[in-house]
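Give me structure tokens for this 872-residue protein.
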Amino acid sequence: MIDPQLAWGLVARGLGLVYLISFASIAPQVTTLAGAGGLTPLTTTLRQIKHDLPTSYWRHFPSVFWLVGASDIALTLVPVAGAASASAAIIGTASPAALAACWGLMRSLDLPVGLLYPWDSLLLEAGALALLLPAVHPIVDGLGTVSAPHPWVAASLRLLLLRVMLGFGKKKFVGTSLKHSCYIKHFLVAQPIPSPLGWLASRFPLVLFQLALLVMFAVEVIAPLMLLPTGSCRAVGALSIISLMIGIQIGGNFGHFNLLTSMLALGCLDTTSSVFDDLPPLSAAEVIIRSLIASHTSLSAIYFVFDSWCTTSWAYWPQLAIARRRWVRVLLATCRTVADHRLVHAYGVFPPASNPPVRMCPAFEGSDDGHTWHRYEYRYLPSSTTCRPRFVAPHHPRLDHSLFYTCLGVGPDNMLAPINSPRPYGHGRASLVHRIAHALLEGTSASRRIFHPATNPFPSKPPRYVRVVLIALSPTSYSHATSTGHWWAETYLTEHLPAVLSLCASGAEGNGTAAGNGNGAAARNGNGTAVGATASDRVGVAPPPPPPPLSIGSRDPLLFHPDLMPVWRTRVPKLTSLLSAPLDLDLNLPAGRPRSAANASCQVATAAAKDTAQLAVSEFAAANQLSAPQLAEEFWSRFVPEVRAAGATAAWCKGEGLAAHSATLRSRWGDARLHAFELILGGVLLRLMPILESLHTTRRLERLGGAAPSYFHLVLLAHCLVLRGPLAAGSTLHRGSAVTLLAASGEVPMEGAALPDELPEGEGDEGDPRSVEMSELTSHGWSFYAILWTDLLLFHARKHYVAHEIQRKYSTPMVHRHPCLLPGFLILLPELAEALKPLVWADHLPARFPQWVPPGPLGDWEPIAPVHAKAA
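Here you go.
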């Protein structure tokens, strides 16, 4: 349709334009996210990574910040330099080098910013392929490239566009039905950041959206296939994709996705080039290009099976990571490498099911007295009735967008993290919401940049209390919005984060929970203020305790998320050395041998922990007065029995509840010593898990069905062995010592080598993992998490019921194979939530949630309860 050189010149300059927009969008946000006073300081992260990976930190976390440092100046200058490079690419000044600089600088920003959205992935993958395009002319000499691109390079960029569109099409239409023909209509309201035209268009007749869904099917499923042949067919497919992108841009806010996809479609207006065109003569450079494109194409076929939400994480999922066949392990290692360097991605986000026409929001509120609450409003995310929908794209407000997903408990910092992210340093007690709450209490500059400055309820000094409540917003009528300024009707749902007290407060308030505010419920008026909760709003006997200080619970490698351990224990030298360290066994004392094995593992873990615990000296002083053997003995003789007694699921809701049990143990032992115990537990689990993995992969866990339902079930099984005491844990450790040595080298025992021969002789004793029943696993396997991670379990249980009321009860329950490929916490969550239900939920709470009748074939959602009701 147009000259090939012009088409690909537009693609190269278009990528420069998208880079420029992306760098300009990130620049004002990066210090809020990762600056010295930001929510997650990059300096701390780099220091921890370099300590844990002294020789390979650059390989697993490539970034220019290793060279320039992570000061606020460096964080600001990197996107500024990227914008300058993008400008050079647009005008054609040293275009290949400029695009390479853009890619390298953008890739570097992945660590502090988290470039995990589909448009981030697409920019990084398209930018990597575009490095193989020929240079462009200076803009004064024309818009095209100096020569036609390599046929395989042009074909790979067309294939990328095809994968993107088909990826979204497969996710959207595979498994859908006529019941979900209203999908687009309500998505305009429920999307992360609604636009003004999307808010308005959601009132149009349903038939228009049903026709739009047919058009979307044609463009996302049929049009991509039209990009393969040459001729006008390709041009029609490209133009239809551009038209759809324009429509999505008008109705939504999805960063630079629509613009970038349209730029890639411009390359398909080259209707003459083909993958079968004559190739350049063989040379060293030609061999490299052909090898790179062939490898990229082969891997992209594997990635096509997955979706955007797990594009960087699926190759780390533990059920895959413990695969026994060597070729599978080699393939997965390759996929992890390209995922680490963001070279290949999966695409497709939105599920085929429609959702009720309502959106949720975690709303931050501050108070000086713990009774009267005032609302903070985000800059872009609707958080009150007066928040007007805005056009934001191609700018991407990353914090606002991330907070949208916290409503359902999805995030890179909790137990569901491995589903989306393979980075082990995000997981911890201090979630994004916790960090924002502490920033508000401290009055940091970062907190002032998060929220709209014109509506700051505490402009002169920070509040004494901060809490987060979950609200539902549904659009009002157009006439109501224009006459009153209230664009949304608000319904209070439940708490998201109990009230947290400023660290400067003292006395009785020092427990971190606001008085008279059991679960954050309160009557609310139109301007977002609230008055103290009533007793009927309380759930359980006592509110959850405040989160521990942010300095406690460092991301020591022993405390990485267990689902990520099968991969990271082969990368982190400390973990590898702990796995391969010989156990100091006294073979002349058979009766004492198991205890010796367990204690030896504890000693190694504790000794290493003293160097990396990152606790304040004063806090760790008590624990530091004990030697490693003494700490291990205290762990086994006192702490483990107390956890077994207080942490079983049957005891969670007795007396004052799980939170009270956890608070009692925490006050008795102190945060520092509990952290030391947690490191000991991590050391024991590190040695136990390869043994259990071997039994799992050889299907020798008969009482669990041969293999465990998921890898996380194996983690709970390891906890059960520890709770049985040092004799049981030590016996398993001794019998499986050969397996742990293989795990330390990254190898997996082959068939028939699951455990040494002496294991069957002791089958049935307490040290045999095969003697653990599923009932014991589910009743006691959670005990350590219940005591050490109480807040996180309560949070997940609460979010499970929120998701059920808003979405899950209208959808088909998840069906999984045995064992499941997905990280197992997702499978265990309903059972966990049911055990904690009396503490986080009450019969009257579902009445607050808008109730709907699901649509029938070609139908729409119908309300069965007032949608616009105010909380009483």
